Amino acid sequence: MKRKLEISELIFKIISYVLLTVFAICCLYPFLYAISASISGKHAVEYREVILLPKDIQFDAFIKMFKEDVFWNSYSNTLFLTVYGTIWSLVVAILGGYALSKKRLKFRKFFNFFLVFTMWFSAGIVPQWRNYLSTRDVFHGIGIMDDKWLVVIAMGMAAMNIILLRNAFENVPGEIEEAAFVDGATEMQVLRQVFIPMSKSTIATVTLFFAISRWNGYFWAKQMISNDWEKPLQVYIRSQLEENVFNTENKDIFSSPLFANESLVYALIVCSIIPILIIYPFIQKYFAKGTNVGGVKE
């Protein structure tokens, strides 16, 4: 038999559901608007007639976008940065979190404090900029001329994700680790066959964090990648905004009679969101558990 809710509990539930509904609408509306604007007619978009549903439906903006070689090239660059960047960052985070979870590690407290310190105080953009320039010179000196590798390698460390993995590894029972060593397992075998399988939810969560960060990466990719043919999708979207929306002269010169320039940009935005929407449902089941396990230290 269900307990009858008190007035205060009922009011709290109503307010909670209303706030959650408003928050969900605020999150969902920009995406729905982007879809509608991308397939709406030129007049409807330019005169701000699109509110929620599309008007004068057309797909010419998507057709033009799909015919552009620059779009596919920037898309492949983004996939490159996301896949290799996520793998590299995950390897660094797993190794760092595993080492810092061991009480036998010398100067463990110092390393942990130093890691957290970087979350409190940032060196700033200028030192980071100089560091990345020096790293690029090193890469060029050893024959790596593709600046995408600079973005992958130089941005491979994230303190928060290392801490999440460290806490998850600390929750693995020590008896299991000792039994593995007694059976003759090496350090890497223990990590690969004991700690990683027992921390799958946290690793999946951290993988999602890294993937989203690499997929949405804009600023350092724009600053560090000098070759336009190597720049990712987010930089390409920004360039289209500057050329076709913000620049009023180009807006009139390169405008299409079938669709608004804004529709092309919205089409790019929609295509940039789709991969994350496809991947997220498969990782979502690990998300809450992984954050709780990695974020709480027993």
Q: What does this protein structure show overall?
A:
- With 298 residues, the chain is an all-alpha fold.
- It folds into 2 domains: 1-58, no CATH class; 60-295, Orthogonal Bundle (MetI-like fold).
- It is 76% helix and 0% strand.
- It has 15 helices and no strands.
- The protein has helices at 7-39, 42-46, 60-67, 69-100, 108-120, 125-141, 148-154, 159-170, 174-182, 187-198, 200-215, 219-224, 233-246, 248-253, 261-295.
- α4 (69-100) crosses α8 and α11 packs antiparallel against α15 (261-295).
- The longest helix is centred in the C-terminal third of the chain and has 35 residues, at 261-295.
- Tell me the series of helices and strands, N- to C-terminal: HHHHHHHHHHHHHHH
Rounded Rg = 24 Å
* Alpha plus pi helix count: 15
In the CATH hierarchy, the third-tier topology of the largest domain is known as: MetI-like fold
Structural category is mainly alpha
The structural domain count equals 2
Residue windows where pLDDT falls under 50 for at least 5 positions: none
Beta fraction: under 5%
CATH class descriptor of the largest domain = Mainly Alpha
Shape: globular
* Main pleated-sheet profile: none
Q: Termini distance?
A: 36 Å
Oligomer: single chain
Give me the CATH superfamily of the largest domain: MetI-like
- Rounded average pLDDT: 85
| Beta-strand segment tally | 0
Helix content estimate: over 70%
CATH architecture label name of the largest domain? Orthogonal Bundle
